[in-house]
Amino acid sequence: MPRVSQDHLDARRRQILDGSRSCFARFGYEGATVRRLEEATGLSRGAIFHHFKDKESLFLALAEDDATRMADVVAEQGLVQVMRNLLNASSTGAPALGADWLGTRLEVSRRLRTDEEFRERWAQRSEQLTTATRARLEWQKQAGNLRDDVDVDVLTAYLELVLEGLLSHLAMGLPAQHLTPVLDLVEESVRRHRTR
Question: Which of 40, 71, 91, 144 is the most exposed place for a label (fewest CB within 10 A)?
């Protein structure tokens, strides 16, 4: 039996994650049946579950993959940029943290409220975004760009709460076109205001 290269295994794993992302976004966790996952990925159940123990492990890996991508944006541009990308995705289907990512993130939020076991498993993975946000804010503070009258941990929690509020807003299907100035205000609220 020929050995499969690591590149091939990595590509197959990526194929599964990308296909399942759209499936979970479209049908939710419960509606993403094995048959639908097979159709979305173009692979058999055996191929899918060769890479992932079960559907929950697949969903967690997908959510973790998205959290890593989001943390990368935070590290380079900040959490407000992630929120801007979400707004763009909700109105245009933009690829950077696009509509499928939003659907997955909304499903994570729903499951966090309703599934204690999932909440425990997710807690082990969710620190990545907080860590990236805190590091970005610390960097901004060192550069003299961040307000210095509020602790970085408080600012981190503030931005994460704004993100959750934005997700709830988008999940309810409320209009998003007027939210860009709101995000401008959020961004301005964490900046240091220099007196002349």
Answer: 144
d(CA 147, CA 193): 7
CA distance 129 to 66: 10
Query: Rounded to whole angstroms, what are the CA distances from 46 to 2, 34, 55, 171, 181?
Result: 18, 10, 12, 33, 48
CA distances, 22 to each of 15, 80, 92, 158 (Å): 11, 24, 16, 30
Tell me the pLDDT tens digit for each residue of 31-80: 999 999 999 999 999 999 999 999 989 998 888 888 888 889 999 999 99
Residue 32 contacts residue 25 (beta carbons within 8 Å): no
pTM score > 0.85 for this model? no
Of 125, 100, 98, 122, whose CA–CA distance to 110 is shortest?
122
Contact 82, 70 (CB under 8 A): yes
